[in-house]
Amino acid sequence: MKKKFWLFPLLVCILMLTGCGKSLSDQSVLKNVKQSNTITWGVKGDVKLFGLIDVRDGQQKGFDVDMAKAITKHILGPKGRAEFVTTTSQSRVPLLKNGNVDAVIATMTITPERKKVISFSNSYFDAGQSLLVPKSSKIKSIKDLAGKTVIGVVGSNSVDNVRKVAPKAKIIELQDYAQAMNALKSGQGDALTTDNGILFGLAVQNPSYEVRGGTFTVEPYGVAVNKGQTGFTKAVDKAVLEMQHSGEYNRLIKKWFGDVPGFNYKELYRR
Amino acid sequence: MSMIEFHDVQKYYGHFHALHDINLEIDEGETVVLIGPSGSGKSTLVRTVNGLESIQKGQLIVNGHDLSDPKTNLNILRSDVGMVFQHFNLYKNKDVLENIMLAPRIVSHIPEEENKKQAMELLEMVGLEKWAHNMPSQISGGQKQRVAIARTLAMKPKLILYDEPTSALDPEMIDDVLQVIKKVTSESGMTSLIVTHEMGFAKEVANRVIFMDQGQIVEDDDSSTFFKQPKTVRAQQFLSKIISH
Amino acid sequence: MINIFTKFSSQLLVGLGWTVLSSVIALFFSLIIGTVFAILEVLPNKVARVIGRAYVEILRNIPLLVITMFFYLVIPKYVIKIDGFTAGTIGLTLYTSAFIAETIRSGIQSVSGGQMEGARSTGMTYWQAMRYIILPQAFKIVIPPLGNQFVNLVKNSSVLAFVAGFDLMYQANSIASTTFDTINSYLVVGILYLIITMPLSYYMQHLEKKLA
User: Looking at the whole model, is its pTM more than 0.90?
Assistant: First the structure.
């Protein structure tokens, strides 16, 4: 055993060294994607209406995914290819920073904290945080959360928002929305919180649950790109603007949110 | 009064007929030696007496307990029937003294002081009082077997079964062990059933000899008659082979 | 890395506390349950052996996460409300107990049959022979593999993160997602796990030498 004691500090040193390496590539993403004629997007795989893997064909489907496809065409032309990598709230930033994906369009709210490590395009969708509860629940709004257990998802800013708005609520963070929903169903928490767009998707899948209390935050979703990729960011902004002008954007809103009960999709229209 | 009674006992291992129509009565106080070629069923027979092996047919009564009855409490029977094994089977996790004291403590609930006194006396009798606090792994085979005999005696049994007690020992150790067994059988008046290949010892110690072959009792006679004039050819052949060695 | 350690020290200490608590509880109960099922597996009674075997085979062949999710999601819905920490610790206990049962069973079986016969021939009951003669020898034999199981148990306690059990791994996820410094967040908790497991395996080696 004596012999092995020097191993421990050595191990710590190695770990520290690897932890200090640079992971961000300094090359221009815009140039790269034009060369390969492909943009690799990080999207959600478990969020209905935004990015959900269809078990029949294994493809991600949703508003984010369609936006990504359209933006790709606007940047690269009609023959440009969009590839998709499924990410979670936890993995999307590391994947972007490591260069595994060129951009992330995954229900990601533009926040000042995130802006410290990555860049965002202008908002492409305006969500707001809300609560999902069983229809029988007595919780009417965010004011009723004191002493209750609120379920959130690791890596999303919604948990921090609840801490600010309802400091007396107990918060548990789960790995993804499916697990969070399962935990809510099992009674592990009293309410599930995240952006209303996502919650509406969950309510569509689980009819005995409903979204309550309106939105208590403003959550503008942005396309995340690595810091310093100004050219790419501008290209994305330009693409989104073009889509708004042409009516393509509103068609996608109607396609995905037109059938959600209790959700006036026209509020989301942009001209 | 008889200590052991076999009535038409049959023992099978699957299809193998290990004990064949055993009829045998051993009285209290007898010292009986069981001999025969290897595989003849001697060990099996001895092991049925304290229920280490079950019997399939017939009746077996030991010290008044009917072993053919599944309701018989073997633990009570065994506290009166000691056994000395070929490979000693001392408890490897206990020292010599604890090996002797454990069963009297947890089976017979003898007061600790009395138990210890008795254990030390027994160790003295087998000549191993200096080894009381050694582990079994630290003593020789002959010493182990003497401890095993002391362990058996500590339960004050009415009957002791010896299953080839010297077969696993180096030749120079055998004598010490046989001396102890001789002392025990002559002094105590206990009933003894001994499986052995030591013919000299058998002659000296036994009142009665049982010769077994192929799962059957072939001869059952008093010691002097058996060794002078074995009745069956099989016994004659066996003796001539052993003695010519 | 030092930054993360100082900035989130209270959060990390909370995680360390829950990880240690869960591990200690699971270690204690999995040892007891494992021993019980190991004994069932070697009993002369066939029904007992089948029950013991079935328990071990089922639990050690299902992923820990599945067992844990069962206690987190299914049990609260139909039986009794238990929180993530409890569900995770129960899952960890049962899962580990199957491996411990297997380890102890092999230990019991490696104690020679003569030890049992020696004990039984003095009139001891089966249970007395187990308690005084067989199990003490079996435990001594299984200390090294048991040590492995204990270290595995501590590492496997990271399953708590998936059921919001507030353990080290849960805090790592949370810190990584707020700082976006994924590598260093996990490095820090990796080292904290080492701080638990290294002394544990050292202690088991020490115990092994002491009893040898």
Answer: no
